[in-house]
Amino acid sequence: MATTTPSRGRRRAPSRMTRAAGKAAALQKPRVILALLLLLALTSVMLLDGYLRSEVGGDERVRSNASSSKVPDSVIDGGPILSFRNGEARSRSVPEKTIALTFDDGPNPTWTPQILKILEENDVPGTFFLVGSMVSRYPSIVNDLVDDGNEVGIHTFTHVDLSYQGDARIQREMAQTQLALAGAAGITTTLFRAPYSSETDAIDNYSWPVYKKLGAEGYTSVFVDTDSDDWKRPGVSKIIKWATPSKNKGASVLFHDAGGERSQTVEALGTYIKKMKAKGYTFTTISGAIQQADAEEQEANGGQAAGQEAGQAPGGQAPGGQQGQGSQGGQAGQGGSSLQAAHRTATGTTLYEGKALVAAVAVAEWTVPGLATGLAVVGVAVMGRFGMMLILARRHYRIRNRRRFSWGPPVTGPVSVVVPAYNEKECIANTLKSLAQSTHPIEIIVVDDGSTDGTKEIAEALGMPNVRVIRQENAGKPAALNNGVRNASHDIVVMMDGDTVFEADTVRQLVQPFADPDVGAVAGNAKVGNRNTIIGAWQHIEYVMGFNLDRRMYDLLRCMPTIPGAIGAFRREAVLAVGGMSEDTLAEDTDITIAMHREGWRVVYQEHAKAWTEAPASLKQLWSQRYRWSYGTMQALWKHRKSLTDKGPSGRFGRVGMPLVVIFQIVTPVFAPLIDVFTVYSMIFIDFKASLLAWLAVLCVQLVCAAYAFRLDKEKYRYLLMMPLQQLAYRQMMYLVLIHSCITALTGGRLRWQKLKRTGEVGTPAGVS
After folding, report:
1. Which residue in 30, 122, 563, 767 is deepest, having the highest Cβ count within 10 Å?
2. Phi and psi at residue 703, to the nearest 5°
3. Region labeled Disordered — which residues (predicted)?
């Protein structure tokens, strides 16, 4: 029985499916690019977060005990404020009975606000030397700090010892901190304090060139002459004692508002300020101290100018690239306060780049912790799934392989086997020959879906008496299956792909569950026939572990989501009752399986009914197939979303199966790349050994599950040697495919039916090893 093939000389207008296919193909490249861009964005966010936390590009080296033979004595013995004019170093000291409170390593969201509150309560300003990465993470604190009248300086972006760094790294540390300040508070600054610096006598031959270079760029380097050593946490009384200048001297006093637990600093600060005020001390910023020192020197010189504040000429160019607004008379660059004379108003590209930096850091600050939480959830879900599969698969195997287990009276009546075929000239002969060996009575219906390669002629030329070939215009696999079901002569219909071969006993095993009148459909055990290549071996592992182990679990839970297209059997009446194979989705097998659940039928897995199928032989074909599967599954789940509210037996899939499929086949795989991304990140930037051991531990768990699945299916273990490589390459590709499918679904795209290139290498089952 066949339709007439249209005349070759007659050109037909493109069909609706052809036009839709063209549109879908045109949309695929942008979606692939979007998927790759999302992966790139994730990687960039993680690298930015790692850089902020000194995990990426961090350098913990600290130089000590180096020679200072090249450092001028006037600098080593001079005051704590060092500036340069025309290449000449100039040191200043804080005037007598004056204290410039300085705070290093902030801002910190816990301690800095408490210190600001104490300063405000005592009407005292401070100078905060800020770490750029912390500024970008806590911009609001910096903005409040500046608004309160305090002064800020640079403490590098990642708190590295600049004496170990090259010119490019030094420039980057300074420029990035200026951008962070611009984004946080709309300013830049001319003040600088090097990490790990202390008094001027600690300047050595390696750090001296750094100070000269920065001085030439307009920076004023600030040291200390009185150190509270609060970072040692010696107790409040000692912090106060060590921070007190001797003999009424003025001092640049060092405290810390970050870098560790600072409760003692907070507790000591208020008491210290009151004590020093009682002794007649006044408090100022570094710029205030410079101006007082210059004023005293000017007075001593009979009114002649002594130099400018913060090492910056009036109206000169500031290090941050902004126009200086300070002046000798004390006009500051921010708010007009002489206590903030080192500040410059950020404008132009500096301002906008700074805001962009702060915004990017804010995204990273929210994204990375969210990803870490997602990673933990995914890890728990993956381990939970493995545990559930092992327990339920073992129970399924023990139940179905008991000596007394039976579905009921043997099913011996003839059944119809429907074989949809589109350009299957390489495979159709092997498929039909394998069916000819069936030990169960069958009729074979080959539905040729408009093949142009002679598939129909090959099937007819075999001359098999129980084979009917039905010819139809190309309409897709669902239409071909529906045509076969309508023409089937028997109550049970077996469906298979045109590239699949059955064992002699496959059909008999497949139909036995229909002895139970509640069973409406049966899923068989699909095997990869072309498994002797790397790609084939990877898919073989996936079929045995991922598909068949899953089906055992879903069978026991009575929520089987998919009957494989390669091997499945249905009650004809059940198929017709749900409207046949739908063209609404690209996963017609998943679609009809869920539909049958909703009609109250039971769907089971028959492990002993084996079919050998030809898996994609190239990465391109594999991508196409899995892309269609993933997208089709999403379509089917969305189509049947109302199953979540179905009641009674028909709602079991919605209550149990739908959540499991969504969690284990969509959500978990979509976020599973986080495990790999974080693992690679940790190996490179954090702890290679610990990360490698964690990855190997997960691999061992997967190997145990895979080995057990192979044992249940009586497969050879040698293919498991490919599993480590599968985890490194194949699994990543499957993740990208799923992400690609999710993007397609979210953007409302549609895919066409995709025909894979066949080789016909899967022959009769007897020849498969």
Report:
1. 563
2. -65, -40
3. 1-22, 295-342
